[in-house]
Amino acid sequence: MTTSIMIVGVGGQGTLLASRILGSALVSEGYDVKVSEVHGMSQRGGSVVTYVKFGDKVYSPVIEKGEADIILSFEQLEAARWLPYLKPDGKLIVNTQKIDPMTVVTGAAKYPDNVLETLSATGVDLITLDSLSLALKAGSAKAVNVVLIGAMASKTDIAKDKWLKAVEENVPPKFKELNLKAFELGYNS
C-alpha cells in the first residue's frame, strides 16, 4: 500500500523545500519514497505541484485524479485547482493566503470570492491555516512552507523529532532556528 501526497502552490513559495523535508522524514521511517520533479512554472507566480508517494515499495511518484491522500496547498486557489486529485476520504490542508495568478495580475480575470467556503461546501476534510501570520511570527514570510509542513506533520504517525531532524537537514544552517520555530508553530496550530 502506498500513500500519496501532493504539495501545490505558486512558484517561489518553497514547495520544493517542503517536499525535501517530507521526503527526508519519510525515509527516516524506512519507507520507499518517490518524489516527482516540480511540475508547472516554477518562476514566481506560476502554479507548481510536487508529487510524493511512499510505502513499502513505490514504482512511480505520479498521482492521478482521485488518488491523493493529502493535498498540502500553499494558496487557496491552488487548493481548488487540484481538488479533483484528492481521494474522497483525503485531507486538504490549505494556507488561507491569496496570491493572485497572472491572469488576475494582468486584469484578464478576477480572483474568485469565497474559495474556502466553496471548498468546505464540497464536504472535503478541510484544515485551514493562516500560515503567513505564523511564518511572520517565526521571523520570515518565506517560512510559510515549513509552517505548512509542521501542520501536516502533526497529522502523521511519524515522531516529531524525526520531522525536526528533517527540517535541520534540509535548510541552510543560518535559517535553521527560524525554520524550526516555523515548524513548531505549524505543528502546534
Keywords:
Pyruvate-ferredoxin Oxidoreductase, domain 3; 189 residues; 7 strands; alpha/beta; 24% strand; seven-stranded mixed β-sheet; single chain
Quick rundown:
The chain is α/β, with parallel strands linked by helices. It contains 8 helices and 7 strands; from the N terminus they run E-H-E-E-E-E-H-E-H-H-E-H-H-H-H.
Structure description:
The chain has 189 residues and is of the alpha/beta class. It has a single domain, classed as Pyruvate-ferredoxin Oxidoreductase, domain 3 (3-Layer(aba) Sandwich), CATH 3.40.920.10. 39% of the residues lie in helices and 24% in strands. It contains eight helices and seven strands. It has helices spanning 15-28, 76-82, 102-105, 115-121, 131-138, 144-153, 160-170, 176-187, and strands at 2-10, 32-35, 39-40, 47-55, 68-73, 86-95, 125-129. Strands 1, 2, 3, 4, 5, 6 and 7 form a seven-stranded mixed β-sheet that branches. Strand 5, helix 2 (76-82) and strand 6 (86-95) form a beta-alpha-beta unit. Helix 6 (144-153) crosses helix 8. The longest helix has 14 residues, at 15-28. The chain is globular. The model has no long low-confidence stretch (mean pLDDT 93).
- Helix-and-strand structural type: alpha/beta
**Helical segment count:** 8
For the sheet with most strands, the description reads:
7 strands, mixed
CATH level 1 name: Alpha Beta
Give the percentage of residues in beta strands.
15-25%
Q: What is the residue-mean pLDDT, rounded to a whole number?
A: 93
